[in-house]
Amino acid sequence: MADTYIETFASHMDKTSNIKVKVAKDTQRLENSSVYITSHLCKISNNSNTYSFNITDSKTNAYNPDINELFLSCAELNTKLNILACILTGIGADGAKGMAKLSTIDALCIAESEESAVVYGMPKRAKELCSNVQVKSLDEIIKTIIEFGA
């Protein structure tokens, strides 16, 4: 999503859901039961069990943001965290490799179904690389995120 759209999108989602939805900011601490949205390369870092964002622009990766980088950074943090990873509609394979790694630490991994995805590239590749990915419609994904965040 373009930067100009993200603030409006996050604000709308925050007002219309029971979960806090925010735009991720560099060095911002992560809060439980919150959803973060970004248009930049984003990794999660752990300093003394305080998790925060490290946001940059990618100069070398094909995608910006690069979901693989985000998911891989989460997989390296701590296996005691409850992690929900979702891949929605999109072209290419971004996120599939990171989701496969997350699945090895028992994260809940979801790929959007072909029926509800506008473009089935990214969810399809995630399904191919991640043996225990759950495939769900967009409505089912929303319900799962709300239940997970409760």
Summarize the structure.
This protein is α/β, with parallel strands linked by helices. It has helices at 3-16, 67-75, 96-103, 121-129, 138-149; strands at residues 20-23, 34-37, 41-47, 50-56, 84-87, 108-112, 134-136. It has a 3-stranded parallel sheet, sandwiched between helices. The protein has a two-stranded parallel sheet with strand order 1-2. A two-stranded antiparallel sheet has the order 3-4.
Characterization of this structure:
This protein is α/β, with parallel strands linked by helices and 150 residues long. The chain has a single domain, classed as Rossmann fold (3-Layer(aba) Sandwich). Helix content is 35%, strand content 23%. Strands 5-6-7 form a three-stranded parallel beta sheet, sandwiched between helices. Strand 6 (108-112), helix 4 and strand 7 (134-136) form a beta-alpha-beta unit. The protein is globular, with a radius of gyration of 15 Å.
